[in-house]
Specification:
Layout: E1 3-8, H1 13-23, E2 31-36, E3 42-45, E4 64-70, E5 85-86, E6 92-97, H2 103-112, H3 123-136, H4 140-148, E7 155-161, E8 164-173, E9 178-181, E10 186-189, E11 201-204, E12 210-214, E13 217-221, E14 227-228, E15 233-234, H5 250-255, H6 258-266, E16 270-271, E17 276-277, H7 286-290, E18 294-299, H8 301-318, E19 322-326, H9 327-330, E20 341-347, H10 353-364, E21 368-373, H11 379-383, E22 386-389, H12 402-421, H13 426-436, H14 439-448, H15 450-459, E23 465-470, H16 475-489, E24 492-497, E25 515-518, H17 525-536, E26 542-547, H18 551-556, E27 559-563, H19 571-589
Parallel strand pairs: 18-19, 18-20, 20-21, 21-22, 23-24, 23-25, 25-26, 26-27
Antiparallel strand pairs: 1-4, 1-10, 2-3, 2-4, 5-6, 6-7, 7-8, 8-12, 9-10, 9-11, 11-15, 12-13, 13-14, 16-17
Helix pairs in contact: 2-3, 3-4, 6-12, 6-14, 8-12, 8-16, 14-19, 15-19, 16-19
The structure holds fructose -6-phosphate.
């Protein structure tokens, strides 16, 4: 989390830096700050726009600087905790993304040796460590390298010193850092999307590496501080500017992009004749996948729930045993994985710290690693041995919507791929593709009926608790629906397997505790109907999500939202859309910041 941006070149740095951290605001929006050579640092609580025009920034003509947008880890969101942080002499400025895990002991040591601190952050220890190291070193880069020897934890760092006005020193350990290489100007950022408007020539730092940027060029150094000659690469310029295009919020825009996402995710990958999917990114590991005996899917939040749906798809249609694990658990568990186990990470951002750690752990064990990743060139994409890009395009709103849909679509493609390597016949493969290709028109039908979903949301806007239930393919959707509601509307919601109701949650049901029951006409339909009856018998209100034309559901439930019929395996792709829209309309009705829910950030790069 936190966004870092730096610039050194021929132009006025302030507008470039502000633009840069605005692009990175999805990573955190608790506070923002900027330091430009020759000017006083400027900091403000809240969004980047609060920094604009503050502290005489408009008069600052310096041509190099660093900026930061914060997602608070250590210390509340306040002015004193806003980056850039500085040393005792206020001669160097540092912006940091990550966590200094041993900051308490370092701070104690530094305070005992006379340093005085101005913030509650872990980052400030870095500034004081560099201050000390600078006494013993000849330049700022060497001072940073020396200082980092004491640091345990993760960091993406950009550092400047008043006496070296055009130089930016950067370092990476576990938090992404990308350099943008221009003509007479250089950039550094947490993410290429902030650089692409200036140059598509970029260089990703690896863990342990450091770099020095000046207008005329850059130098990168290995973890052993040896000069490296790595060539920059051309980055896809698709990651350009993103607009709301007439929608009130990015979340609604991104939900409404589901059909485009379908096209982009499936483009060139479906082979109806052979009943298979072609996935270029895993072609090189085809044989290893043929020999795979077990698949472990790891992810966090919505990506984890997508994995849960994937388990049902792959086990039923490809016959491969699948375990799905929350990444923050898997990474610390001594999982006795055999060599023929494959670990698949699902991540929109490709930067989620826990998911990345699972990939590293799996590699350490010698396992084949795969990624289903949306952000091209992100760390998980680069660390995985092979993988499939979602091609869902940039997702700006914090809540995952279109990315989740594309994750489900990629999992269908993977099921076809693995299935056709194994027991799936050509007829079954063709039938799945045939149904898959009908989804865009069905998605449109859901969009056409979205006003009805808004009406249902408005009816329940004062409720404070919700239960979401589902079974089989839609079991994970109960969790995903509840997550969507809680994160954007701050309403307490819990997901449950419908079959679990009698084992505890039913006790909570009364007239003020509604249940969202996902009950399409599928192989567990009758079981779901019984569960709905049990809730209704206890005066519980039920919003049922069912298949078009199901009149029984309408007679049982308090409210019904219909979706078009499809095959069981594909039903989550349709069913999730009303769940996303319901969460969205609830948030709007409650007047909340839909795209930037409190306390959250889009890329979770800390544990
Ligand atoms: C929920 C949401 C999060 C993410 C999770 C993983 O709407 O967005 O739960 O799904 O933080 O993020 P990625 O997919 O970037 O690894």
């Amino acid at each position: 989390m936190c966004g870092i941006f730096g610039y050194t070149g021929k132009k006025k740095a302030v507008p470039i830096l502000l633009q840069g951290i605005k692009t990175l605001e999805y990573r955190g929006y608790d506070s923002a700050g900027i330091f430009v050579s020759g000017c006083a640092p400027v900091r403000a609580v809240g969004e980047v726009k609060n920094v604009e025009g503050a502290g005489g920034l408009t008069k600052c003509v310096g041509k190099a600087g660093i900026a930061h947008t914060r997602w608070a880890t250590h210390g509340v969101p306040s002015l004193r905790n806003t980056h850039p942080h500085t040393d005792c002499e206020e001669s160097l400025y540092i912006v940091h993304n990550g966590i200094v895990e041993n900051y308490k002991e370092l701070r104690e040591r530094l305070e005992n040796s006379g340093h005085s601190f101005k913030s509650d952050t872990d980052t400030e220890v870095l500034a004081h460590l560099v201050e000390d190291a600078f006494q013993k070193e000849t330049n700022l880069h060497r001072a940073l390298v020396r200082a980092l020897k004491d640091v345990r934890g993760t960091y993406g760092i950009a550092l400047m010193h008043k006496d070296f006005a055009r130089e930016i020193v950067v370092a990476r350990m576990g938090s992404p850092i990308v350099l943008g290489i221009g003509k007479g100007e250089q950039f550094v950022a947490s993410d290429p999307s902030a650089i692409i408007r200036h140059t598509d020539t970029m260089l990703y730092l690896e863990d342990g590496e450091t770099a020095v940027l000046s207008p005329g060029g850059y130098k990168i150094f290995s973890s052993g501080n040896k000069t490296l000659n790595r060539k920059p690469e051309k980055v896809d310029s698709d990651i350009g500017e993103i607009q709301k295009e007439g929608f009130e919020h990015f979340m609604l825009k991104e939900i409404m992009e589901a059909k485009d996402v379908f096209d982009a995710t499936t483009r060139g990958r479906l082979d109806l004749k052979e009943g298979v999917a072609h996935l270029g990114g895993i072609k090189d590991v085809e044989e290893k996948l043929q020999n795979m005996k077990r698949l472990v899917i790891v992810g966090c939040g919505s990506a984890y729930y997508a994995g849960m749906v994937g388990k049902y798809m792959i086990e039923e249609h490809a016959g491969v045993p699948v375990d799905v694990e929350i990444a923050s658990e898997y990474r610390y568990r001594a999982a006795p994985d055999q060599k023929d186990t494959v670990v698949l990470a699902i991540s929109q951002s490709g930067e989620t710290a826990d998911t990345l750690a699972c990939i590293k752990e799996a590699k350490r064990k010698g396992l084949l690693t795969l990624g289903i990743v949306n952000v091209v060139g992100s760390t998980i994409a680069r660390e995985s041995a092979a993988g499939v890009y979602n091609h869902a395009g940039p997702e700006v709103s914090v809540a995952s919507t279109k990315a989740f849909i594309s994750q489900l679509i990629v999992l269908v493609l993977l099921t076809l791929y693995l299935g056709r390597q194994r027991r799936m016949g050509i007829g079954e493969g063709r039938a799945i593709i045939d149904e898959l290709m009908k989804l865009p028109s069905k998605i449109q039908r859901i969009f056409d009926g979205r006003d009805a979903i808004e009406l249902v949301a408005n009816k329940y806007v004062l409720n404070r608790d919700f239960l979401y239930v589902g079974r089989k393919y839609n079991f994970a959707l109960a969790y995903e629906g509840a997550l969507k509601l809680k994160e954007v509307s701050y309403i307490h919601a819990e997901g449950y397997g419908a079959g679990e109701m009698k084992h505890g949650p039913l006790a909570m049901i009364d007239k003020d505790f509604p249940t969202f029951a996902i009950s399409p006409k599928d192989s567990v339909y009758e079981k779901n109907i019984s569960n709905i009856e049990e809730i209704r018998a206890r005066s519980g209100k039920v919003i049922a999500l069912g298949t078009e034309g199901d009149m029984l559901l309408a007679s049982l439930a308090t409210d019904v939202i219909y979706v078009p019929k499809t095959i069981e395996m594909l039903s989550p792709i349709l069913n999730v859309i009303p769940l996303q829209l319901f969460g969205y309309y609830m948030s709007v009705a409650r007047g909340l910041n839909v795209d930037r829910p409190r306390n959250l950030a889009k890329a979770v790069t800390v544990e």
